[in-house]
Amino acid sequence: MEYHSHAVVTEKKVTLLEHGQASELTDYLANEVRVALVYNGISHTVMLASPENLEEFAVGFTLSERIVSHINEIKGVELEFTPEGILIQVEITQRCFMELKQQRRNMAGRTGCGLCGVAQLEEAVKPVMRVDSDIRFDIQHLQNALEHIKSNQHHFKLTGATHAAMGLNLEGQVTAAYEDIGRHIALDKLIGAFSLRQAERPVAVLLTSRASFEMVQKAASANIQILFAMSAVTSLALELAEKSNITLIGFCRNGRATLYTHGYRLLGQNTARLAKAI
């Protein structure tokens, strides 16, 4: 969906320089739009995002950042379009809003001493949440998802500039896919989508990006038990996945993947032996 003048993709005439020759062609650019999240009238943060599925983004961000603990604590989401960008007005319960204000007050007051940086670092790392552990996924079905990545990346096919977060079922079929220029925003959109619709939580999530700390933290907040990433896994992501009881797999490409944590959820060839070693 495109929002008025905030199109997701821009078409532009460009000059191709190739083998010493210049030629004109049409290129497609992924648009970056300033998106401000405003809670109960107070601005919280501004991000650059792709201008679609922004209600899902707002809900997913609010849940994954633990501003609220349940979707029922989000009372409304409204979009306001301006020449400078898009304002997302999110109304949350008074209790959640007071807690958010207290967090902001604590952060604003921590300046002027050597210990303040330590306090701010502690604030950035949220308490570890452990996910449930009842799901089992046949690793052979990962190939099914990998074969359908391109068909679920409509904006990437045009621009080459977006990431995707895809929800998978037990057969490895893609049940939902959301794109954004920001990998963490794509995951927020996916989380917001199944939360808004009260849909069944994906068995696993496939990321077209790397799995960094914040991606694992968001997955834990949403009780996502299995996280596949097409690219690398960072050290902090691995550490948090271990503590959060998340099965983390990186470098997922045709016919191969690297298992990092909690392999007991994976079924298939030799995974029982691997699970014992990890």
Automatic annotation (TrEMBL):
Q: Which NCBIfam families match?
A: fdhD_narQ (TIGR00129)
Keyword Methyltransferase tagged: no
| Record's function text | Required for formate dehydrogenase (FDH) activity. Acts as a sulfur carrier protein that transfers sulfur from IscS to the molybdenum cofactor prior to its insertion into FDH.
Q: Which InterPro entries match?
A: Cytidine_deaminase-like, FdhD
A GO molecular-function annotation? sulfurtransferase activity
As for family, the record states:
Belongs to the FdhD family.
Q: Name one GO cellular component term.
A: cytoplasm
Work out whether the entry's keyword set contains Cytoplasm.
Answer: yes
Instruction: Recite the UniProt keywords alphabetically.
Output: Cytoplasm, Molybdenum cofactor biosynthesis
**Entry's Gene Ontology BP terms:** Mo-molybdopterin cofactor biosynthetic process
List of catalytic residues: C113 (cysteine persulfide intermediate)
Localization, per the record, is: Cytoplasm
Q: Which residues bind Mo-bis(molybdopterin guanine dinucleotide)?
A: F251, C252, R253, N254, G255, R256
Chief location of this protein within or outside the cell: cytoplasm
Which Pfam families does this entry report, sorted A to Z? FdhD-NarQ
Can you say what this protein is called?
Sulfur carrier protein FdhD
